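## retry 2 of 3
previous attempt timed out at serialization; input unchanged, resubmitting
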Amino acid sequence: MKTKWFKNIAFTAIALTVAFSSVPTASAASKLSGKIVVNGSSALLPLTLQAANEFKKLNPKVRIAASAAGSVTGPQAVRKGIADIGACDWDASTDVPGFKKFDGQVANKVAVIPFAAVTNSNVKVGDLTTKQLQDIFSGKVKNWKEVGGADADIVVVNRAFGSGTRVNFQMKALNGTDFMTKGDNYKEVKSSGDMKTAIETTPNAIGYIDLVYVTSKMSALKINGVAATEQNVINGSYKVWSYGYYMTKGEPTGAVKAFIEYVQSKTFQNGSLKKLKFIPISAMKK
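## retry succeeded, writing output
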């Protein structure tokens, strides 16, 4: 079922326009109308698409276009006036390492995103320490046998600069150490969908991705003996996660405000959001 779901999303195109006028179950009472454009994080794209499909049943006169080219493109698109919502894996209203804040934008918290180090399913290593991850992603360790695996060259798959997943993985899984950026066994991809495909189809590959994209064709590694699970994020033992944000130019209004409030609602947070392996924002203590 999951494979079919991913095919339907068509990550290679990674853009979708949802037209709501023909939904037979739409509420006739809703008079909310307008068009909402969402751009940015591919980690948050599955959440946005699912929320849009549910929101359309309540508000048939609203149209939503959603696309994802990496977190930094979200607030950039809002600043340029070509998107109403910039999906981002960090609070872009503040400075973070590598990125200046986007003045005048409001960060609307919508989800908790757990990230995992992942390998192709042929890799038999299930647990790596922070030091081992640092050595692999910097290119110091090049063969799986150096970390307890088979005698095979490691293929490092990295996200391009501007990815929120990359920012969070570097800060929280690698403690800020640098990535390798070139080499025979190095690949760089633009989106979470591209990372999913690369890990699934490249023997001996390692990369990182948010949990919604993890499939049976890859393995999510434990880090320092701790698995990337909802429970371990909530209890504080697993550190590689972030809040997901919808950035807006000032406080949201109209249809944009209503859509954000729907994503933040208990109905969505405790329903579809959890099924997609995100974590409700209310589950966290901070």
